[in-house]
Design a protein that fits this description.
It contains 12 helices and 9 strands. By secondary structure, the protein is an alpha/beta fold. It has a single domain, classed as Alpha-Beta Barrel (TIM Barrel). It has a 9-stranded parallel sheet, with helices on one face.
């Protein structure tokens, strides 16, 4: 997963009253995500639930991967990437752990292989927790030599493990804003950063979290990729809050197709993303029915993606977990039906 933790919030305050906007008013107010906030801005939520088959703008798509383990996992990885490449995502991202060393090199090697085999546009993750300050610029230069033009810059989790208190490296960039500032000096990359519709778990409150996000944008970030959040209304309220705070960088919602509900529950308990009761109910009793679970997962992810597009988001980020099936299904519902087939020889593991 791209981003650090977001714990579920207990005792969330009551939501403001929702006023449903008619379609024509929605188009006037929110033609796209970066439109100006109305002068009479107030806490309201524009809702539009597109019907299946309703024509929608085709969003830009990015797909997140993680470096494969060696051996058979590598062969499987490149086979799945070949299938994902067939729907021509605008770019892929590749995660990197906080441990530095081998994890950083695993990300670099994966990006290099994806570039050389498929000619894909790939954005590596670089984390402040993994690198000394004087290691960042040389690593960025190595990526530039591969033809990389995008980077996802993150603080990263504690080197002691997820859930442990984060302590900045004495020899490194302390936080994501510092890392972004260092990377921006090179002037070679479009820099994306993480953001949190459910509030970063270490933030004092939502307002403080937005101040940290604004600092990353001020440092040079040009795009904001959200942690996955199954509550679409919350993503919309987060966009409103960003606008109210003067944050105008494009927001790219992260969407997690659910390959295994138990796995996503485990991820969420570690990273803090909440699991709505309605979602748990949908997957209840499907542990031994994987095909039915896939149908449910496709429906959930597709509905969220199509609603986000209808609400004005022009880019989406899909957490594929190195598996193609669900992401491909969602892409078809988003209008990417023309497969650009990849030569099987390119997918074969080296």
């Amino acid at each position: 997963m791209s981003h650090a933790a977001i714990p579920s919030r207990q005792g969330v305050e009551a939501e403001p009253d929702v006023r449903i906007l008619e379609t024509f008013e929605l188009e006037q107010r929110m033609p796209h995500q970066n439109s100006a906030v109305p002068s009479d801005y107030e806490h309201r939520l524009a809702r539009h639930f597109p019907q299946l088959g309703e024509a929608l703008p085709q969003p830009k798509l990015s797909v997140e991967l993680f470096p494969p383990r060696s051996g058979p996992a590598t062969e499987t990885f490149f086979s799945e990437v070949a299938r994902l490449a067939a729907v021509a995502p605008d770019y892929f991202t590749v995660t990197s752990g906080a441990g530095g060393g081998a994890q950083v090199e695993a990300t670099f090697d994966t990006v290099s292989e994806l570039r050389s085999r498929f000619g894909l546009d790939v954005a590596p993750h670089i984390t402040a927790a993994a690198l000394a300050r004087d290691e960042v610029a040389p690593l960025a230069e190595r990526y530039a030599e591969l033809g990389v033009t995008r980077i996802v810059a993150l603080r990263g989790d504690s080197a002691e493990g997820v859930g442990k208190a984060y302590r900045p490296r004495e020899d490194g960039y302390a936080y994501a804003a510092d890392l972004v500032r260092g990377l921006a000096k090179a002037g070679k990359f479009e820099i994306s950063v993480g953001c949190y519709p459910e509030v970063h778990p270490e933030a004092e409150n939502a307002e403080a979290d937005l101040r940290h996000l604004a600092a990353k944008v001020d440092a040079g970030a040009s795009q904001l990729i959200t942690q996955y959040c199954f509550d679409t209304d919350r993503i919309l309220r987060f966009r409103d809050a960003c606008h109210a705070a003067g944050i105008r960088a494009p927001i790219v919602p992260g969407v997690m197709p659910i390959h295994q509900f138990a796995q996503v529950k485990r991820f969420s308990s570690m990273c803090g993303a909440s699991i709505p009761a309605w979602l748990a109910d949908l997957f209840q009793g499907l542990e031994e029915q994987p095909e039915l679970a896939k149908m449910v997962a496709t429906t959930v992810a597709t509905e969220q993606c199509r609603r986000l597009v209808a609400e004005g988001f022009d880019s989406l980020h899909l957490y594929a977990l190195n598996r193609a099936d669900l992401t491909l299904a969602v892409c078809r519902f988003l209008g990417r039906c023309n497969l650009h087939l990849v030569d099987p020889a390119m997918a074969a593991a080296a």
